[in-house]
Amino acid sequence: MKLKVMVLVAAGALLSASVGVASAQDTAALMKSKGCFSCHDIETKKMGPSYKDLSAKYANDKGAVARIAEEQKTGKGHMKINASDDEIKAMVESALSHK
Predict the structure, then answer these.
(1) Residue 69, burial from CB neighbour count under 10 angstroms (0-12, 13-18, 19+)
(2) C-alpha distances in Å from residue 48, one per residue of 61, 72, 75
(3) Tell me: the pLDDT tens digits for 38-60?
């Protein structure tokens, strides 16, 4: 019985790890399709700040994701992004993950 549980736990861990990689790739493709990289770059400032600069700025701000997502959703403080709430949240989390 313990062996079956361990196998199921290991399989679940592998599945969740592979889903995370696919999600990161999907999010990058989504960001590209929504034009994020027209104004932002990971390393260098373009029209907007780099993702590394944004990550540093909001590193200790627990409400940053929700606040930035709302700006993108409404177009106040950032150009309006035509995407679902979940897509916007995923893009913001990705942008703020660059160290």
Answers:
(1) buried
(2) 19, 13, 15
(3) 999 999 999 999 999 999 999 99
